[in-house]
User: Fold these one by one.
Assistant:
Number 1:
Amino acid sequence: MRRRRFLGIGAAAVGAGTLGAFAVPTAARLLTEGRPGLLLNSTVPLPEAFQVPLPVPPVLRPVSSDGGTDHYEITQKAARLEILPGLRTETWTYGGSYPGPTLAVRSGRQTVVRHRNELPVPSVVHLHGGHTPAESDGYPIDLILPFGSDRSLAAPGMAGMAGMPGMEHPADLPLGRITDGDRSYTYPGNQRAATLWYHDHRMGFTGPGIWRGLSGFHLVHDDEEDALPLPRGDRDLPLMLADRAFAEDGSFRYPAVDPALAVPGVTDDYMNGVLGDVLLVNGAPWPRLDVDRARYRLRLLNSSNARLYRLELDPQPSGGGALVQIGGDGGLLEAPLAHDAVEIAPAERFDIVVDFSRYPPGTSVRLMNRFGSERTTEVMRFDVSSRTVSDDSAVPERLSDFERLDRAAAVTTRTFGFRRSRSDGWTINGQPYQPGRALARPALGTTEIWRFFTDVHHPVHLHLDPFQVLSRNRADPGPYDAGWKDTVDLRPAESVEVLVRFTDYPGTYMLHCHNLEHEDMAMMADFVVE
Ligand code: C2O
Ligand code: CU
Ligand code: CU
């Protein structure tokens, strides 16, 4: 009873404050509508690029292991981190660092992560790309309340957790599985090697939560991948890309409609998404790294709220094809794909091998963002050493064998339109997110074709199972659509068909846009696997 009342009041409090965010766009604003986001500039002077060494997030050790399970513990807490040299930034962290600690787990072993919430706000943890039973998937109202909070509306940051207009919690539905202070998430590990990530997924507040630091890597390893001669150890680097804006005192800037984060959403101008003018890699601004003249595996993750990158090395090695893609969101490709540039949308991962021995000793190689402007055109720099080193790594011609899902096996085709509505913000099939309202009920074990189409730019993400891209605009998939994916980027007025098989776990899962401002402003839906 108490919970229900509490959520109800939160929703009511939201109404008036956010109406502005859903105003009908003016003619002038329509000109910028197609862009995935608006730049929010820092008000602090920005540091020079390539001064800070690239940090690599620490790998978390299990607190215990038994038979088939590894147990981990993470405390979510605020920390004052030095992100810009000489300044402190109040950051929301997993375990005191940004990015959070990396979990490195074995396929076939179960992972249990106990999260304790010492943040000033409720949180939800989602393992992105995880093949996870519904109760551990981080359903957006399955809140972990802050440790020691008494569930009263008086607690700071607690109001409005029921979400947006149109995102109210229907009175006749069960509440989320709310826990006090901590909870454990169980990941059975029944999936192939892949670069996954974990992040906050609280309804209405995923954008500010990740912007403030709630993001970390979760790497799955397996025997198939271990048997390949790919670069490893210090030459296997997770790289988390994120853009941010900073205020004079070093704090993060974010255009929340309510800076206290009691009410979700951003101000009208940032409705398309928030872009920052500082590019961080693993939490450091425009870092640099000394590299050997050898192959490196770069596990690129775009954890930005809304920014789309086109990554390219400068200079290119002679002969081009510097970015050899070996994997995507859902693990290894069948065969490597050499690119000159890679386009990476929010939440996507590209597993890339770069051979720095293709450069003369002493070359400085910049990772560029060709979709950026001014300071956001440079990402980081690799300084190629002049030493001669041995490198026994290789990129085999055949990486993995996996089943190609077959169009003929699909039992149905469903269509999902990702569009802005005049009255309800960002919607899927005209519906703003409402917990408990399923837009699809696929049967466990079946394969379906899901067709997405867009008005403006939307990176579309599915929980539970990865998919294979079948077509883009009724033609073949694009150059960045290979392999198993869990997020597919759609440009304005595009349509993409994917094949997905719903496996192992019945229950309620999410389909949403991974532009976090769109997601928070209701571009999300439940689907129920039955
Ligand atoms: Cu990375 Cu539902 O999210
Ligand atoms: Cu996800
Ligand atoms: Cu979107």
Note: The pocket of copper (II) ion (ligand 2) is lined by residues 126, 128, 461, 463 (CB under 6 Å).
Number 2:
Amino acid sequence: MKIAIFPGSFDPITVGHESIIRRALPLFDKIVIAIGVNSSKQYMFSLEDRIGGLIKCFENEPKIEIDHYTGLTVDYCRKKNASFILRGLRVAADFEFERNIALMNQAMHPDIESIFLISEPKYSAITSSVVRDIIRNNGDIKQFVPSSFKLK
Ligand code: ADP
């Protein structure tokens, strides 16, 4: 069984995340969307709300599981029997950042492969941090988040 982990903060989920996950579905038997919980990071949305947003977005997709984890992504992969880490690449800066993480993960667990999908151009400027800024300033985020997404 080909299992991939799609790790991220999803604070909040964007149409960019959604697109990468849907495009990757034919490649794997299962994709676990896993929220990495970092106790030293401040989030805008609670873990429960971020999990809820992911569940709503993918509720009709049997190949997707939603979960959260602490610790190293590679250790979590082992626990879930996943051989692949899926990430999206928007711009060159993403590549530099992701390559570093992928090389470190490879050094620790050579049996786990990182797989990258290039973002669709229309999504390449969308980041969760800009979406958070728009929310803080009472702007309309509708076009940047999945249609099922609801601000409480
Ligand atoms: P992290 O905190 O780990 O960066 P994010 O939730 O911001 O988590 O992102 C998770 C993954 O989704 C990363 O691989 C990131 O590159 C990818 N991603 C984020 N936004 C987009 C987008 N607009 N298009 C494609 N990939 C994206």
Note: The first strand starts at residue 3 and ends at 8.
